[in-house]
Amino acid sequence: MKRLFVLLLPGLLFSGLFGAPQRKNPGKAPKLAPPPIVTSFSDERPQVRPTGEFSEMPIPAPKGKKKGKSDTTATLLGVPDRDFVWKPSKLTSSAIGTADLTGADLSADGTLLVLCERVGGEGKANSTRLIFIDIREEKLVGGFLIPEQFLSSIRFLEKSPVEILALRHPFEPYKVTGGLVRVNLKTRKITDQAAAPAGTSGITSFAQCGGKLICTAGGSDLLYEYALDDLAAGPLKIRSGLTAPLVCSCGDGIAAFSSDGVRLFSYKRGKLTPAEHISRAPEGFTPRRTVMIDAAIPAIVFAGETGESFWYFRGGNFRRLAERGAGVAVFDGKDRLFAGMEAGAKIVTFQMPEGRETGRPIPINSLKPSTRNSTLGFFHVPAMKGAFLLLDSRANLFLVDPSRSRWKKTIVYAPDRNAFR
Fold first, then answer.
1. Under a CB-based contact definition with an 8 Å cutoff, are residues 184 and 193 in contact?
2. Residue-by-residue DSSP string for 201-267
3. What gap in Å lies between CA 51 and CA 299, rounded to an integer?
4. What is the Cα–Cα distance from 9 to 73, expressed in whole angstroms?
5. What are phi and psi of 172, to 5 degrees?
6. What single string gives the DSSP state of each residue in 105-160?
7. Beta strand 253-258 with 101-106: parallel, antiparallel or unpaired?
8. Rounded to 5 degrees, what are φ and ψ at 277?
9. Which residues are bridge partners to 264 per DSSP?
10. What's 90's DSSP letter?
């Protein structure tokens, strides 16, 4: 029986294979599933291109060294037991290595200079790097990055040694609007902000006055008053009577100025009230920056862009101080104004409050250590007996002492010595 089953098995398999019902051929190829479509989405969000360098590394604290007092701005904001290295971003439109700095301010106690650096390049996506330089220790003591925000024109708050105000520039791809921001340098955060007034091209200047902040905006002849403790609450609008005004602090009020002239504002019963008349400016008056000489007179020095004149406004009258200025000046708080000149980066000294030029212009670049750089800013340091800080276009910082017959210049901090002679 078993032998018979073995003989019949091939036949059964053969018949099962060909005897199974066959599927009728419809005459068409079977439908195939379409291949998957792979779609690649390009990321259109622009990225901030890293420019410049900033790094830190821990260093051991010296044995036996006591912790310094915490009542200075440099001590409050400096990072202890750290060593910092900074190579400034370069301005892409400059062929001589100019640093891409957009602002600088010295703390009220004169111990810390904060620099504002643009990261990413001109006309591109930007971040902002803030750099801290301790003036007494002559060293870099901190810094941090504010990502995807382009800030400029930084100013310390008068009533807070660890906070600054800054203009913010708009950037549509990041949904960033122009306006004003308040930054806490200790927590490294933006703590308050105000958008530019509707219908304007952005905030152009601001001045602190008590607990108020007075701003101007592009394309508007109004002044905008904000509460310093609540910028987001929005402004109170005040008519200036000037075309495209800018503002500066002036005692218990502010001075609004433009090519039209100067108009003073003071607080009366809590309301910012304008003077009845406007001091009309002479032809060629194109002010951009101010140096307050005496708020009571008032006496103010106005500077334009590089190559324009310095003007002295005193008691309602205008007088040209010097032509072809560098746009930067500093008052020593007593009786001398130092104004930068375009030609040869010279410095001219004026006796104040008379506004009388004294001595010969000093060729500051020829003083050792000599450089080939232009002057970016001056800063008055009250504790240094008439000396002042000079910031050049490569972010090098010098202390200039004009108290002697032969001026003396010393390095405070130098991230770029390439232009030293």
1. no
2. S-EEEEEEETTEEEEEETT--EEEEEETTBGGG-PEEEE-SSSS-EEEEETTEEEEEETTEEEEEEE
3. 42
4. 101
5. -60, -45
6. EE-TTSSEEEEEEEES-TTS--EEEEEEEETTTTEEEEEEEETT-EEEEEEEETTE
7. unpaired
8. -120, 160
9. 255
10. B
The torsion angles phi and psi of 159, rounded to 5 degrees, stand at: -105, 10
- At 390 the three-state DSSP class reads strand
Joined tokens for residue 94: 């400059």
The sign of the dihedral angle between the CA atoms of 69, 71, 74, 78 is positive
Q: Give the pLDDT of the chain (421 residues) as one tens digit per residue.
A: 445 444 444 554 444 444 444 444 555 555 555 555 554 444 578 999 999 999 999 987 666 655 555 689 999 999 988 999 999 999 988 888 899 999 999 999 999 999 999 999 999 999 999 999 999 999 999 999 999 999 999 999 998 999 999 999 999 999 999 999 999 999 999 999 999 999 999 999 999 998 999 999 999 999 999 999 999 998 999 999 999 999 999 999 999 999 999 999 999 988 999 999 999 999 999 999 999 999 999 999 999 999 999 999 999 999 999 999 999 999 998 999 999 998 888 999 999 999 999 988 999 999 999 998 999 999 998 877 789 999 999 999 999 999 877 899 999 999 988 878 7
Distances (CA, A) of 101 to 123, 194, 223, 383: 14, 23, 28, 26
Q: List the one residue out of 237, 235, 239 whose CA is nearest residue 227.
A: 235
Residue 191, H or E segment:
strand 189-195
Whole-angstrom Cα distance, residue 206 to residue 249?
9
pTM, full prediction: 0.86
Task: Please write down the long-range contacts of 163-171, taking CB distance under 8 Å and 24 or more positions apart.
Answer: 163/191, 164/105, 164/114, 165/206, 165/208, 165/213, 166/103, 166/116, 167/202, 167/203, 167/206, 168/193, 169/126, 169/202, 170/196, 170/202, 171/125, 171/126
The tokens of 283 are what?
Answer: 């032809």
Q: What is the CA radius of gyration of the chain?
A: 33
Q: Which amino acid is at 410?
A: T
Query: Could you check whether the bond before residue 170 is cis, i.e. omega within 30 degrees of 0?
Result: no
Give the CA dihedral 313, 319, 323, 325, nearest 10 degrees: -10
Six-digit token pair at 12?
Answer: 């059964």
Nearest to 328 by CA among 298, 301, 297: 301
